[in-house]
Design brief:
Number of strands: 7
Number of helices: 6
Radius of gyration: 22 Å
Order of helices and strands: EHEHEEHEEEHHH
Largest sheet: 5 strands, parallel
Shape: elongated
Helix content: 40-55%
Length: about 220
């Protein structure tokens, strides 16, 4: 395994994208799902990049990236679609201590961006070390079909309930409680009565678990 999979916390941190064309747009669509502070540098931005800047979703500098622009950046994407320019800005990013990625250049990148199935806060990342991008997309499509869109809602509600669920002792009883929730009861409640019904179901499951002798 050449690339070790991790989930990097970028909440409130700078992420820099060098380039403002279509290649950069593809990366920005993913980055905009995060809580990062995104700065884009590019002399000829696309209409989409300009629109995101007007909406306050990114900071846009309509010029090439220069020394000093990557200070305090957690990550830097070189997405200029120009090998020489991408190498130049990647060197600036590395010198500033940022993790750098050169789009479509696996060997010179410190990290790669996997195919992502987004069921926020549940995220599935799929990587093939660059060997089979088509296979990664196929796996992504398969998982998106298998994982219901409601999964993220159930995970967020469950996360908020964890403190109450900790009333249950660790081990089989607590695992059974969460299994009942995620393996049918939660989704059935959501479909029948929305998020309020899910919370009510969690309370019912907790009461049942407390009052039932462990197996």
């Amino acid at each position: 395994m050449r690339h070790f999979p991790v989930f990097l916390n970028v909440a409130g941190r700078r992420v820099v994208v060098s380039g403002a064309g279509e290649c950069a747009v593809a990366k920005l669509r993913l980055l905009l799902k995060t809580e990062a502070n995104i700065a884009v540098y590019g002399a000829d931005p696309t209409d989409q990049v300009v629109q995101w800047a007007k909406e306050g979703k990114i900071l846009l500098a309509e010029r090439p990236l220069e020394v000093g622009d990557a200070i305090c950046a957690a990550m830097l994407y070189a997405a200029n679609e120009d090998e020489i320019e991408d190498a130049r800005v990647a060197a600036i990013g590395r010198a500033a201590g940022a993790l750098t990625n050169i789009v479509d250049n696996l060997d010179d990148s410190a990290f790669i961006t996997p195919a992502i199935v987004d069921r926020d806060p549940v995220t599935v990342a799929i990587g093939t070390e660059g060997a089979a991008p088509v296979l990664a997309r196929r796996i992504k499509a398969d998982l998106e079909e298998r994982l219901p869109s409601s999964l993220g809602i159930l995970a967020r509600i469950g996360q908020a309930f964890r403190r109450r669920a900790n009333m249950l002792p660790q081990g089989r009883m607590r695992r059974d409680f969460w299994s009942r929730y995620y393996e049918g009861a939660g989704d059935a409640a959501l479909q029948a009565g929305g998020e309020d019904a899910v919370r009510s179901t969690l309370n019912d499951l907790l009461t049942d678990a407390i009052e039932t002798r462990p197996r």
